[in-house]
Amino acid sequence: MTPQSILKEYFGYEQFREGQEKLIQHILGGGDVLGIMPTGAGKSICYQVPAMLLCGLTVVVSPLISLMQDQVAALREAGVPAAALHSNLTAAEYYRTLDAIRSGRIKLLYASPERLLTEGFLGIMDTIAVAMVAVDEAHCLSQWGQDFRPSYLQIIDFLKALPRRPVVAAFTATATQSVRDDISFLLGLQSPLELVTGFDRPNLQWRVEQPRDKYAALLRILKKNQEKSGIVYCLTRKNTEEVCEKLCADGFAATRYHAGLSPEERTANQEAFIRDEKRIIIATNAFGMGIDKSNVAFVVHYNMPKSMEAYYQEAGRAGRDGGPAECTLLYSGQDVRLNHFLIENSDENNPLLTEQQKKDVQSKDKERLQAMVRYCNRTDCLRASILKYFGENPPKHCGNCSNCLTDSETIDATLESQKILSCVYRVAQKGRKCGVRTLCDILQKKETQAILSAGYEQLTTFGIMEDTPRARLEQIVHILVSRGYLELDTGQYPTLSLTIKANAVLRNQKRIQMALPKLQAERSKSQTGGTLTAEGPVEESLFQILRRTREKLAEREYVPAYIIFTDATLRDMCRKKPKTMEEMLSISGVGKYKLDKYGETFLKVITSYKET
Ligand code: ADP
Ligand code: ZN
After folding, report:
1. Ligand (nearest to CA of 402)
2. Core-most of 144, 171, 333, 539, by most CB within 10 Å?
3. What is the pLDDT of residues 63-75, one digit of tens each?
4. pTM value > 0.70
């Protein structure tokens, strides 16, 4: 089997995402890797796919039991032989797992860093071949990161204790160079392939609000997101308690999470959230690491967090399934003071740090806070600001943040997009590439020297957007780039090319909505093609039916609903309405194993929906 066929057969996905394939190939070639990808980008696939192909066991080091359980449940649902060793297992489960490992039936074994060096664990590792050690949340190794865990420092000793050194693959979402260097050094990575993928999460809408009444603002957001799951982050335990109490009193299905609760209550509340029994969780930053829940539709920061790093990680827990999601930061001047206080009175008296190091940490923390404050006060594109902070060079205007959306209108820009994309296609047919300016010139019938000398005036797309205002045309092009329909290769003279994603638009299989600044002049109707919502009422009702079907199955199997199919998969079913098992297999997220297990159930539901 190939990585591609594993991806399709077990995980049900057609294509690798950015970076995944490179990392996988490198691992399969026997090389160490360090993958730096934002939350939700798909790090797990990068070690799960090669684990299936390597001869021997893959040990996945993971910080939290809940995370392990979640991943193992998801893998088993996909037909991948996986297990976890942790303290929540009964004796019988424990010995059954050991048996399965020894007999080679397990391909992926999850374990906490604390367990690695125990005699029992090392004993088993001695009897089998360990092909790879994958380190999840690898920033826990670094004391410069936000979640330093000294037990992660034992991983290198574990590697040394193995009879043969396996491939080591480390993954994190933290992008700073010092953390990256720490990871490489402290794990003893051997000339690893370091791969940083794009940090953009196009499906997340960034919002900053400075409301007079935060609670009222929160209610507004909750009403807008009815029936959807979301996280509300607060800075302090006290705040968390207050907000949770108010919401419960107002009739919301909310629960809470912070370090002051008993471990039992924390686990129970987290479970209730993951299983959709409570749709809202109010939490401090203690919540979230290892939460893989893919259908979080919104994240609200009730207080400004302490850094952009923390913000991006926490807010990034929204929209993992790729569906539209909203991240709102409710900012007030008081948040700045509170954060200052927390930095100065930080009781993280890390015994490993000298006085000077502690001072350095504090001044770094203050710098990070400043950057966070600047973010809250921006009037230009929020996404651009985030991406610049993480070292990227994004387009100026994203069309999907509260600043870009101010005084804007959402239009169906499918027709415009098609015109633009097909113009890029026509240029490519001539064996050429052009930049944004020339492209817009062609579309607007400008007979410039560059155009005439290239013969572009003969293209069928020459002048087909003559009536669209130039600024709007450019905005649409930029949004197509930021959403990945067009690629802007960054040469000396950046040129545009189509991506695979563009096909669906050109073939009229995908509609594109965009929020664009309102036009001054009146537009004729033909130009916009009218407005339209992403999911019409019909689709929505089918989606709800599919969700209920999924819920019933989830109850029966006792797994969280999204582990059966994600919302993104259900939405794909709504769009394509498969008629046969074969068509069902073409749905994103439906692999062979899940097809056998659930395909027929969902087919029947879709068929009977179409009949009525
Ligand atoms: P991370 O660990 O980087 O935060 P995950 O590994 O949890 O992200 O992946 C996020 C989501 O993206 C999951 O639902 C996963 O199944 C999905 N995913 C990963 N790779 C792909 C892919 N190539 N195509 C489609 N979906 C993918
Ligand atoms: Zn923007």
Report:
1. 2
2. 171
3. 888 788 889 999 9
4. no
